[in-house]
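Practice problem: predict the structure.
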Amino acid sequence: MLLPDLYQAILARRSVRQYDRQPLDQAVLAQVQVGISAVQPLIPENEFWAVQRDDVLRADLVSVLGAYGHLVTPPHAIVPYGIGETHVLEDLGYRVEQIAVHLTRLGIGSCYIGTLPREAEARTRFGLPEGARIGALLVFGYAATGLGGRTLNALVRAVAGATSRLPLECIFFQDSFEQPALPPTWLTPVIEAARVAPSACNAQPWRFLWRAGQLHLFVTRYNRRYGKGASQAYCFYDAGICMANIVLALQSFGLSAGWTMYRSAETSDIPSHPADLYPIAKLELPEDSLRHKLGTS
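Answer:
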């Protein structure tokens, strides 16, 4: 079954920083919970929870997030967290992006609020288990519709660089990393879904290598936009977000595919790559099916 509204939601989603303070009604919140319940894992063995915690917003958001907490004024928040041995941050990004896109389909705005630099404090304040990874909160509600709210949302996105995206030929490579290229026509909608994925500080760490029917995902090992220390780990969370957008795009065309994670950076079948890139995963793409769905030759 084709789901064109799903693909449109992937492309249309924008981070909302200023919200209508009025809470969503219970019928709408029930639809939000349906989307949370339907989330699919990237790493099935990891434990995952996504808890709506509106009660902590005004008491804790500022102390956990600094001045950013004053800005967003959201009526609702989801505190997602995971516990596991491998790829927990990628798994979190993958699952939470599914929720964010679902919110967009419902006409609800959302914003990722990163917690990596203050993750230990966030665990304490939200009463999470020791060892739980959060990565980011997801705040949500209806976007402010007044002129001030619309202007602020547009201004903050522009300042953060979120209105700009790297050209496709800067993130896509054909056969080797010595050959930057535009994706084939049949593959372009999938890579475009990845290109518009949100990332912390609009870092856009993802790089794709298309080779022998497989799409390989890498991220930059160091990205100055993230800042120093623990914030560099946002590349893994953002990789998960990007991976979710790709799988959701395929679903919108009535196709299914699953990522194979590289369990180690030294895995033998990882393609040759520059030292400043870190391998994340690969995906077998159904080329013939995509060509048929998109009507390309």
